[in-house]
């Protein structure tokens, strides 16, 4: 994490002092204006502007009274306050952090995709062949470790996945049991962290899943 030092800050036109990232560290960091980012912050965080470097914004924890340049991650929250896409969850509920690539076909429940105009007419066999090629590409990265597999998977997901999560590299975040289609969930939770699934079928289409943790 970036080294912190004391600096002035501006909040609602008033000044005060608190722990702030150094000016040197700020030189190469630009955070979007607060109105663009506040809705994405975990509870207890705010965005504030440095008076020593106007136009530079940092993240401020209202509980610890500490500032930082890095976007606050969900791991910085107490377990009972961490979110998945379905809201807050109990800290002891089993979850799996997974990435996925979805290939739809003409038999999919909703045969439409952001990637093409009109309805998808691809046969399921063709969708499976395309996914098999992606799987081979990701598996070739296995000797280099999970980071290499993850990068390869995300790069393919951004281009090839028919799911709305494509823009996030197929990242579903932490999913809890009972939230996904049963056939998808069964495979996702059976995978060991760092492993890639075979091609699986759901009502949505055919999928690849990479479990991160």
From TrEMBL:
Keyword flag Isomerase: yes
Membrane spanning stretches: none
The reaction(s) this protein catalyses: [protein]-peptidylproline (omega=180) = [protein]-peptidylproline (omega=0)
Gene3D superfamilies: 2.20.70.10, 3.10.50.40
GO cellular component: cytosol; nucleus
Stored PANTHER family: PEPTIDYL-PROLYL CIS-TRANS ISOMERASE, PEPTIDYL-PROLYL CIS-TRANS ISOMERASE-RELATED
Protein name as annotated: Peptidyl-prolyl cis-trans isomerase
């Amino acid at each position: 994490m970036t080294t912190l030092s004391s600096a002035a800050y501006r909040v609602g036109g008033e000044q005060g002092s608190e722990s702030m990232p150094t000016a040197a560290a700020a030189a190469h960091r630009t955070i979007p204006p607060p109105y663009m980012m506040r809705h994405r912050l975990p509870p207890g965080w705010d965005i504030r502007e440095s008076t020593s470097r106007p136009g530079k914004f940092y993240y401020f924890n209202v509980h610890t009274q500490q500032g930082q340049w890095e976007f606050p991650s969900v791991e910085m929250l107490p377990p009972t306050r961490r979110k998945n896409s379905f809201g807050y969850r109990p800290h002891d509920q089993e979850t799996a952090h997974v990435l996925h690539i979805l290939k739809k076909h003409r038999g999919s429940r909703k045969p439409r995709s952001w990637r093409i105009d009109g309805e998808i007419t691809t046969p399921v066999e063709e969708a499976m062949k395309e996914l098999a090629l992606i799987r081979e590409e990701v598996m070739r990265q296995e000797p280099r470790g999970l980071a290499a597999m993850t990068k390869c998977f995300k790069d393919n997901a951004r281009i090839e996945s028919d799911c709305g999560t494509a823009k996030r590299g197929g990242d579903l975040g932490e999913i809890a049991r009972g939230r996904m289609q049963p056939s998808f969930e069964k495979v996702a939770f059976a995978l060991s962290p760092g492993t890639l699934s075979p091609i699986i079928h759901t009502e949505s289409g055919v999928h690849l899943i990479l479990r991160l943790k």
